[in-house]
Amino acid sequence: MKTKMIFLLIFIFIISCTDDANEFPEKVTPERINPCCQNELYFPPVNSKEWKTISVSDLGWDVRAEKRLYNFLERKNTKAFIILKNGKIVVEKYFNNTTVSDYNQWYSVGKTLTAFTTGLAQQDRLLNINNTSATYLGQRWANISTDQERAIRVRDHLTMTSGLDYTVSNKNCTDFDCLTYRNKPGSFWYYHNAPYILLTDIISGAVNMDFTTYFETKLKNRIGMDGAWVSRGYANIFYSSARSMARFGLLNLNKGTWGKKQILKDKNYFTQMTSTSQRFNRSYGYLWWLNGKKSHRLPGLENEIYRTLIPEAPNDLIAGLGKNDQKLYIVPSQNLVIVRMGDSAGRTVLGPSNFDNELWKKIKALIN
Prior knowledge:
The structure is a single chain. It is built from 12 helices and 11 strands. By secondary structure, the protein is α+β, with helices and mostly antiparallel strands. The longest helix is centred in the N-terminal third of the chain and has 22 residues, at about 1-25.
C-alpha cells in the first residue's frame, strides 16, 4: 500500500510539472519549429489577398536601416516597394498617395513576362525558338531580302541580336518600312525594341490565339496575378499591382514552379533564359538582365562596359529593368525578391542606372 502511494505521488508531480510548462509556453519561431526548413519557400494562395509576413526584427535585419531606406525611396519618387524573403513579405511600403491595389507600369520589366510566355509556347510544342521568325510572322514581315529574312530566328528577338537597323527614328516601330537590315543576325547586340515587340505576334501566330489570352491562361491566372496589357503606340505595356510583380518574381525564384504546380516545366529553357545568351553582352539572357558578369552593354549604347552590371548587388542577381526605374530583382542565393515601382528616380533610362547601386547600398545596410 505504501509503495502504491509513493507511485501515485510521483505521477501527480509529473502531471503538475507538465501543466506548468504549458501555462508559460516558450516563444517559438519558424526556425526553431523546423530548423531544416527555414529557407523553404512560401507561396501565397491564388485568388486571395492573403500573404504571410515576417518582420525585419525576426530576421535579425537592421531595424535602424529600415527608416533610412524608406526615406531614400520616398525621395526617389517611389510608389511601391516590396521585399520578399523565402516568399514572405518583409517590407511592403507605398508612397506618394498610392496603395496596395494601385496599378503601375512595368515598362521593360514586362519583357520578362514575354520571355517566360515564349518558353511556355515552346513547352506546348507550338513554337521553337530556333525556327525562323517567318515561320510564325509569315513571309515579308520586314523590309529585307528573302535570304536576310530566313536568317532571323525567334531566338534573335529574345537576345536583341536580330540585326535589324536600330538607327531608325522610332525604335518601337514595327511597320514594314521601319524594319530594315543592318547586321548579320546573331553578330551584334543592341537594345532594339521593335524586334522585341514582334514577339507578341510571333507567339500569337504560333499558338493560334491572341497573345493576351494565352498569357492569362498559361501564366497570369495560374499564379494569381492581376493586371493587363495596354497598347501605347506600337508597344504593349503591362500594368499591375506591385504584389503581382512580386508573385512573378517568386515564380522565377523557384525556377518556374509555383508551390507544387509546375508552370514552366522546361528547365533547360529557364536556364537559358537566365544565363548569358550571346557573347556580345554577357549580362543579358532572354530579355533578363544578369549581374556578376565581367562586362555589359547598356540600352542606347554600342560600346561594352567592363564591369559588372550592378556592383553593389549580389553576383547571382537576375533582374527585369524598365523605364523610369521599374525594378524586379531576384537573388536566388538569399531567396530574395525585390520590387520597386514608381516614377524616375533621377534620370530616364531603359536599363540599369546609378539608382540601382544606390538602392542596393540601402538594401544591404538593411539585410546585413
